[in-house]
Design a protein that fits this description.
alpha+beta; Hypothetical Protein Ta0175, Chain: A, domain 2; 2 domains; 3-stranded antiparallel beta sheet; 13% strand; elongated
């Protein structure tokens, strides 16, 4: 049934040949003709409907092209105070993380000062706390600003970055990262697959660029320690100073491990203790890897959904959960498994394919993802399983 006088139908017919019109629960659905005109027509229609307070959604179902027109979400409440409060809280928790790590390292050096083979820097808890916090917050902030810029370029209304503070110590006294990153909420889907790709890829690329600079600066401040001095005879009862060194709850990202080995060698008798700048870079690279997991509404989930569609996005999500479990990151795996129930809304135009440029960039991001993962946990698990089943 059609309504010739409906302004929405008039607007749609201006851009698409309409075959059928369906109305239900306040949503108008049009079956439109397919063809090479779809991408350009959809973009022009979106601009016109946006001015009227509506958004178009283009889907292919049952061999037919469906165009749904839905009301745009109302502008969100301004929560600048919450953005600022969470930012300051995360500055506090990351400072505390850097402070406590430096304090522990200082205590180790006081106990075994003869273990130092290369004094890249000498720990100062207050300075190190500020250095670590400033470097890590810069990486995370630029990451989120990358998303914000991409959202603005594609006309997507997005919130400010909500940073997530985290206690500096885990249960048992182990060091944490001091933060769980930050998120930006978009008020509506990306306009098309290209826009969805840009929204997902922009953050990791921007954040990784800053992390690379921080990593390079931190290399020169790395401290090399004699393993025998930390752990005489390599006996468990003598290794107290070694276990007292602050360490990440995950292994080093593969690319960072290779860079450190290239710079200082890979001698099994030497322990490389990373300075606060390099610590921040490690976390920045690790956050990039986690965000690029092809799952849910993570950055990698956006990229996978844009390039490969809904079905492969769903399988990629399950693969990401399994990968996290295999790498020993069980808490993250459980959290991601919980997020999978939300699915992914996809872009407004889910019919037009992504551009060849985005497809090539997707392969590059896959390489970044693989190089940024902490493979040591995974390789250790493979070795243990091989030994168990090889008996």
């Amino acid at each position: 049934m059609t309504y010739a006088g409906d302004p929405l139908e008039v607007v749609v017919r201006r851009h698409f040949p309409v075959l059928e019109v369906h109305r239900a629960d306040g949503v108008v659905g049009f079956v439109v003709s397919d063809g090479p005109h779809v991408t350009g027509s959809f973009r022009a229609l979106r601009r016109e409907l946006t001015a009227l307070g509506y958004s178009p959604l283009l889907r292919r179902r049952g061999g037919r092209l469906w165009l749904h027109v839905v009301p745009r979400p109302r502008p969100g409440e301004n929560r600048g105070w919450l953005v600022a409060a969470l930012f300051l809280a995360t500055v506090g928790t990351t400072f505390a993380t850097g402070y406590l790590a430096s304090q522990r390292f200082s205590q180790v050096l006081q106990e075994v000062p003869h273990a130092v083979l290369r004094a890249g820097y000498w720990p100062n808890p207050w300075v190190d706390g500020l250095t670590f916090s400033a470097a890590l917050m810069a990486i995370l902030l630029v990451h989120e600003l990358g998303h914000k810029v991409a959202a603005r370029v594609h006309g997507i209304e997005a919130s400010g970055p909500y940073f997530i503070p985290f206690p500096p110590l885990l249960l048992g006294g182990e060091m944490s990262l001091g933060t769980m990153g930050a998120v930006i909420f978009s008020k509506e889907p990306a306009p098309d697959r290209d826009g969805l790709f840009d929204l997902g890829a922009s953050g990791p690329v921007a954040g990784l660029a800053v992390a690379a600079v921080v990593l390079w600066l931190g290399l020169e401040r790395t401290v090399l320690l004699d393993l025998q001095a930390l752990c005489p005879g390599l006996r468990p009862e003598t290794c107290g100073p070694l276990w007292a060194l602050p360490r990440f709850p995950f292994g080093l990202p593969w690319v960072v491990d290779r860079v450190v080995s290239w710079r200082f060698g890979a001698s099994p008798e030497v322990v490389a203790y990373l300075d606060p700048l390099l610590d921040a870079a490690v976390i920045g690279v690790f956050v990039t890897a986690v965000n690029l997991l092809p799952a849910s509404s993570l950055d990698g989930g956006h990229v996978t959904r844009a390039l490969l569609g809904e079905r492969w996005h769903r399988w990629g999500s399950y693969l990401a959960v399994g990968l996290l479990f295999l790498m020993g990151l069980w808490l993250m795996a459980v959290l991601l498994l919980f997020l999978l129930s939300r699915g992914h809304p996809g872009p407004m135009d889910d019919v037009s394919p992504p551009s060849p440029l985005r497809q090539g960039a997707g392969l590059a991001l896959l390489g970044v993802f693989v190089l940024s993962l902490p493979w040591s946990n995974f390789l250790l698990l493979v070795r243990v399983l091989t030994e168990l089943f090889g008996r």
